[in-house]
Amino acid sequence: MTVPHTSSSNPQISSESTSESKDTPALAYAGDPSPEQQAALPTIQLTQPDASGSYEDRCRQTLLLAEEAFAKTGSWVVFFRAVLGVGGVVQTLFLDLDERRRFIDGPEHAALHEMLAAVRSQDTSKANAAEPERMITIRIPKSLHELLVDEAKGCNLSINKLCISKLLQPANDRFVPEQQGRRRGRRPGPQSNRSQRDEVLANESASRTDAANRLSNAGANLNEQEHANQVSLNRFGGATSGQLNEAAQAAEEPSAGNSVRSWGG
Known about the structure:
The chain is mostly helical. The protein contains 11 helices and no strands. The termini are far apart.
């Protein structure tokens, strides 16, 4: 029932990330489960969505599948993931972004959130019981924080639960400011951690040190060869041509009985 995570299905996946080399290991969040742990997380099986029908038919189908999910789980996280999450029922049935925006503005989408709120009201388990939790840190003005505190008190909720309720609602383009210039701050998605950066820097430093050592050794070997050549010149400098020819012939035709002769002059 899931669809591939592409830039169209997940706004957090940009061409910047998909253009990376296949040899580069994908970054992951520190709390993400292993494949074995992921397989053990609670899931529900729903009737396969059929995206070939008309828009009205798919709206009705979304509600039927949401009711099916509502009857199969008491976890709001599992319900959200299956119905409203990335690759869930809504994204599967409304692949066209314009149609999806139309659905979000309609009464059927509101009905889904009423179901979600009902599940959240009854769900006493922790969110990480259904899947790992992730944490985001945002900077907000003091006056906005004070408003959230006041609103949370009025709803008899924690600020965390109030913020989740707000984040579950899609952003309305009318109330979203336009980005001016280059986007500031960290891009969405997992970030490389400090240990990975330190390891890369350490490897680069080790490579530079190794290259410097090889260059130094090559220079030392060259100096030794030049010194040996100079010694040979000094030793053979006073030898006659006959003596040099004799030495060359002895070097070319070594014999077990030959003794080393010194040509000091």
